[in-house]
Amino acid sequence: GQNIDQPTEMTATEGAIVQINCTYQTSGFNGLFWYQQHAGEAPTFLSYNVLDGLEEKGRFSSFLSRSKGYSYLLLKELQMKDSASYLCAVKDSNYQLIWGAGTKLIIKP
Amino acid sequence: ETGVTQTPRHLVMGMTNKKSLKCEQHLGHNAMYWYKQSAKKPLELMFVYSLEERVENNSVPSRFSPECPNSSHLFLHLHTLQPEDSALYLCASSQGGGAARYSEQFFGPGTRLTVL
């Protein structure tokens, strides 16, 4: 079966750095997505990786290793507004998104 | 209106009721999706309409019935639901086909459904 694993919950301090990991086992791979979802709101797109390596976008970076079935989302200079759930999703061989259950990130002052 | 809109935002219904959820996208996309989001579970893809072709998840009960009259509008018709169907129902759209198969999905704010 297809599976996406990510930690259920993480806590970090304002101003610090946090890394949210995601491992996947899917039938085929056509890219990995990270989404942010604030409580009661729609998921919003953060990043897309299809080749190995690091993609940087402001305070957020996303890394992919296809051989290891592994990705992480790195958030720097954490702000209180970064408190949200972070969803990892992989497009399989049929271009359908397979989703993880999400990581709830709690930022403390 | 911009992006993806959904109505209603909240819905409480009894198990014998019939109701419909509505989604509209203003992004010019040609693929639309219904997802179910339950607490601490992955998003479950229920239905996809891509380039006017419906792709179903065979595990979705028949009490959920989608309708896509055109590329901008999507409905989810509900009848004789069960309490375990209570969840957040999210609509999304994307550009489908060709190289756009790699594109991201844009989500609406969801309908919070409670079945009594």
Largest sheet of chain B: 7 strands, mixed
Number of strands of chain B: 11
Overall pLDDT metric of chain B: 90
Order of helices and strands of chain A: EEEEEEEEEEE
User: What is the rounded distance between the termini of chain A?
Assistant: 40 Å
Largest interface: A-B, 23 and 17 residues
End-to-end CA span of chain B: 32 Å
Beta-strand percent range of chain B: over 45%
Uncertain spans of chain A:
none
Number of helices of chain A: 0
User: What portion of residues of chain A is helical?
Assistant: under 10%
Sheet with the most strands of chain A? 6 strands, mixed
Assembly type: heterodimer
Radius of gyration of chain B: 14 Å
Structure description:
Chain A is an all-beta fold and 109 residues long. Chain A is built from no helices and 11 strands. The radius of gyration of chain A is 13 Å and the shape is globular. In chain A, 0% of the residues lie in helices and 57% in strands. Chain B is mainly β and 116 residues long. Helix content of chain B is 0%, strand content 54%. Chain B has no helices and 11 strands. In chain B, strands 2, 4, 5, 6, 9, 10 and 11 form a 7-stranded mixed beta sheet that branches. Chain B has a 4-stranded antiparallel beta sheet with strand order 1-3-8-7, with no helix packed on it. In chain B, a hairpin with a 2-residue loop joins β7 and β8 (73-79). The A-B interface holds A 4, 8, 30-31, 33, 41-45, 48, 50, 87, 89, 91, 95-102 and B 4, 40-43, 45, 48, 90, 101-102, 104-110.
